[in-house]
Amino acid sequence: MTTDQAEVQLQVRFVTKQEQYAVPDSPYAIQSNVQSAELNTLVNAILKETKPLILKAVEFDFLVCGELLCTSIAEHLQEKGISTEDTLEIEYLERFPAPKPQECLMHDDWVSSVHTHGSWILSGCYDNSIHIWTTKGQHKLAIPGHTSPVKGVSWVSNDGEQASFASCSHDQSAMLWVWNVARNSVDCVVTCRGHDKGVECIAVAVDAKHFATGSWDNNICLWSASLTDEDNVPAKKRSKPEQGNSRTPKSTLKGHREAVSAVKWVDFNTLLSSSWDHLLKLWDCELGGIKQEIAGNKAFFDADWSPLNNSIVTASADRHVRIYDPRSTESIVKTTFTSHTGWVQSVRWSTIRDTLFLSAGYDGQVKLWETRSPRTPLYDLTGHEDKVLCCDWSNPALLVSGSCDNTVRIFKAKHATASA
Fold it and tell me: Domain NLE: where (predicted)?
């Protein structure tokens, strides 16, 4: 870029959807080589004049042509092929603050899965155990029961006195557990058997009445999450070493050609699955058929669905995170995000902000992304010393990840409930 280009004057207007920070609509003249820091100074100066009740400076991010500004305005416009002669509209929004590292929970083996519910964390481990922790880092229980690595854990319900959760393992089973919080004791009430190979992933439905598991046998099984015995369970006596009553699947969804790596509920009847066969599938669980199929060009390791933006975010056997819009008639890949230096293993949407998500990878990195900034993550959450196998953002205030360094790390998000 030449010096002349860098020093062009621009007419800009500042707009925001956050009413409390709105400034007058008049245009301002600025140099085209300014970046976010100078824009921040300018908007805060305008706020100081027009909104005396805002006492301290606010950190803003700036959207130019729908994408977060990460370079100078001149470079940004040049890349987008937009003239510097028209009045430019710049949208500003309060910056999501950097998550702060909190606890580090030590395990005896690789941590393959984590799930948070309120102030409780479940973790699943390669030494076949499940653990319950407080979000403050206190270890409540180590739970044996599975006979191979635990690959998925998920809370089903928690009323403060009694909680239930589900787990799945490479021992080909899923288990339903009840935890008496006051006594701090756990019982396995149901063992679910229906897969022929290791179970890789688990997801509890929105209504907590059933759950799905995906396996290396290429199948997805749907199960009742009821803690009591049901009519369809054979009344045979259970033989040791089976724990709890044995349960068979309500139905089995067949269609993937390789291991199922993730299952996620879209609504009460629709399930999203990802697989090593390079396919994402949306299933009608009542009819047992496929509603939609989306082809990728790599094995999918994980996928997550956001009801806030109706999009799918995926982790693949490459360095890229991709967002798919299943409603799109043209290109279904909406955006590609590139910053990881190794395979991406896990992805999770924010449950309250439709433009934020987490990714975790074999490069030991956990990254917090804003969908309008595809090349630069908002933050790198550092601390893990080996591959990161799972991440979770079920509690909006806590970003949680588990790794091959035998730890779960917790980061606290300020402004967790602020709207975008």
Answer: 10-77
Count, residues in the chain: 420
Convert the pLDDT of each residue in 349-366 to its tens digit.
Answer: 999 999 999 999 999 999
Spatial strand order of the sheet with 60-64 comes to: 28-31, 9-15, 88-94, 60-64, 67-68
User: For the chain, which residues make up each domain, given as ranges?
Assistant: 2-94, 100-412
Confidence of residue 408 (pLDDT cuts 50, 70, 90): very high
Instruction: Give burial (CB, 10 Å; 0-12/13-18/19+) of 303.
Output: buried
Q: pLDDT tens digits for 118-142?
A: 999 999 999 999 999 999 999 999 9
Its pTM stands at 0.91
pLDDT tens string 164-174: 999 999 999 99
Task: Show the tokens assigned to 101.
Answer: 């590292």
CATH no. of 100-412 = 2.130.10.10
DSSP letters of 83-124?
-SSSPEEEEEEEPPPPPEEEEEEE-SS-EEEEEEETTEEEEE
φ/ψ of residue 252, rounded to 5: -125, 130
